[in-house]
Amino acid sequence: MMSRDSTASLPAGLGRRDFLAAAGVGLSGGLAGCTGVFAAEGNNVNIAGSSTVFPVTEAIASSFSEENPTVNLSLSKTGTGGGFGNFFCAGRTDINNASRTIADAEVEQCGNNDVTPIEFPIATDALTVVVNPNADWIDCLTVEQLREIWRADGATHWSDINDEWPDEPFELYGAATTSGTFDYFNEAIIGEEANHRSDYHATERDRTIVQGVQGSEYAMGYFGFSFYSENPDSIKAISVDDGDGCVKPSIETAMNGEYTPLSRPLFIYVAKESLEKSAVRDFVRFYMKRAATDLVSEVGYVPLTEDKRDENLEKLEAAIEEVTA
Amino acid sequence: MAADTGETPADGFGRISRTKDVAFRLLALAATLVGIVSLAALLLNVAVDAVGWLDWQFLTNPPHPNPYEAGFLPALVGSIAIMLMIALVTFPLGVGAAVYLEEYADDGYLTRFIQLNIANLAGVPSVVYGLLGLGLFVGLFNIGYGTVLAAAFTIALLILPIVIISAQEAIRAVPDSQRQASYGMGATKWQTIRNVVLPRAMPGIMTGTILALGRAIGETAPLIMIAAPTTVFGLPNSFFSKVSAMPLQIYNWASYPQTEFQYGVVAAGVVTLLVVLLTINSIAIIIRNRYQQRT
Amino acid sequence: MSQPDFSHDGIRTARGTAFRYLFMLCALLSILTTVAIILTLLLDAIDFFAQIPLVDFLTGTRWSPTNEPIAFGVLPLISGTLVITIGSAMVALPIGLLTAIYLSEYASDRQRAYLKPALEVLAGVPTVVYGYFALVYVTPAIDTILPVDLSTFNALSASIMVGIMIIPMVSSISEDAMSAVPDSLRQASYGLGATKFTVSTSVVVPAALSGIFSSFILALSRAIGETMIVAIAAGQTPRMIDLTDPAGMFLDSIQPMTSAMVQIGTGDIVGQGPAYKSLFAVGLTLFVITFVMNLISELVASRYREVYR
After folding, report:
1. ipTM attached to this prediction
2. Minimum-distance CB partner of A3 among B187, B230, B235
3. What pLDDT, in 10s, does the model give residues B202-211?
4. Closest Cα to residue A61, out of B64, B15, C54, B192?
């Protein structure tokens, strides 16, 4: 029975082998075809960049996705610099979230790869310094005091800032060096003369900062306002005195410009070349319209004014006309 | 095995040694149970936390920064897409390697080297496979960072040694007498393998492969290394779509600031992942039990 | 396993040969994978070592790839890995060994049929889930139960979780080794009037020692390579540890090698500079350590197999 079975299956076996070979050729051909079709055109929108801008883009992408379920939209949290350097200017993403303006070196890198960045302001953030709610000795810090705490070779203990404060070392949580938040804090607080200290918990994950500050009475951290507004009871925001008295961070004080020097504009950068893809065009149009709505204040930022929004839309349509013409 | 030996040690020994014996037995039993009980307690915790969060809306929505609107669909679909690709890649390769090692290879230096190498590959940390994927698939072959293909190929290499080892065991379990009978009837080696060995070994091979896929679906570190995106909206529409996966989405959600994410949405994600994993493993066990009587 | 070829049919032989080589190719793929891993790691690591001297990397006590002053000393990361390894060893080795003794010497067949799959589940839970458990359940629980000042991110909870995860690795391989100990040895001791405790600890364990040793090394190698648990729960503070200060070792945040790799891999680093390439240097270090450990474990294990089989 065995031999009958095997002799009978001999031609069938050959047939199967042919089939397998054909399938193999078909598959690799198909793959090659896919590479061509999807890599060039594609119903994909790829975004990387700042973790501060991330929640805004996530909220907008989520509602965009509900209306356009066939668009594959990816969003990575890499820090502003990581997003420009590794993804956007390398031509790997269409859009970069940024919590600062693009640097000259990055513009140059983009240029070398034929990527033309277009800047769109999308919201305003109030960078927030937070401490543990049990740290009842502190409510307000001057910019000088903040600098003393966060600069290299500065204070190490709370008592170094104020004799009445506990003689305990700081436990500091801050943004990683590639994040726009770090750059902004560095620029606004530390300044040119000093360096940001390096012996702190540096992270691109803001949750880490919230958890760290919740966990220790002597901890301090800084991050975008949205992370504070999500946790107003478990961490305490510090008012900042820029010479005109203490101002508490809030959407109002950021919008009317009282909260200085820590309020800052947030951006997205769109590669002009990517606007050739209809999915990217649709998404950016959608983004610009939504950036002036409550959707932004719900994630804890200050929305655009309608004038700014119209300015953005004009800029966008002009760019689209250029690439599709 | 000492199951039924020496249940009555000779009399004349003191009470002390008997007490010590009983104490040791209890200690060993406690040690056996401590891990299982801890895990059960943790699973119970996460299941309770997931109540109210794990619902139809969670399973069918895209992610959202608001925990009450956040959904898991792209990650769920991404995981399944990656897993199917992995199965397509590892099954033929794993079975082929196992057939060679068990049926063709002699017991020489090369075979022993391959065998040792496979055992070693099974112990290479998954994060190192991630670097391999980054260098090989993302870098050299340029199939894009974080795509379905890059993710599937990377994890496929990771579980291939496990698939090979379990397929080898299944093939080894086929009685030699059956091969001899086939040869005796004039069948060639290939005919014997195809008509006798593989059909008999198939349930075991399937079980091993599916269990390995269970391991694959929980892998996170390799995906991070090939720069899989933090979050994906919409479903993968080609092999070159950026892909998210359940464990990756869980890792990223765990960093969201709101406690509703930490104790609600993430818990729901964890339970979903574990349910999918349990389903996969149950399928493997059902296959094994169904065919066990025949072997 | 080579069988005499009864077939004299030319086509059949050709076909058989074709399949033979096709299958061999599949088997050789595993060697190719190893070569690819080594090449991937080595090529970028060489770039890295062209800029950072190997000696500085291996003996430096500061790891700060992006913050001025930049330093690429791997020792703080190895310290972090060591803490996790020691911590998980303290959990998994005694528990795993006792579990193996129970399964091999005490448990009935029925008990074994339930306990062994249940233990395997411990190794089957995705590590990201363990990491999440460590962060949101274990750390707060320890913080309330024990009178210690535990950081949110700490080596203790991460070690416990890694330890639980590797228990089955210790117990199953150790149990195999103990089961392989010939019954005649046990019978002889019982004959001399020994209790089960004495037989287990003085006869079975010593006789199975090489298998147990092999299981320990394999489990620890797994702990060293474990990534997600430490990335989520152990923190991101690369620091040198003081072995004489267990509280300082375990209660605070550390950063093992794998966790540093995840931090670099999540895109915190820009461009192709040494900070990015350090990913591969650390990866190579990790690969070499685990590879050597796996190899030792394999060699020791093959020795015990030879002794009793």
Report:
1. 0.87
2. B187
3. 888 888 888 8
4. B64
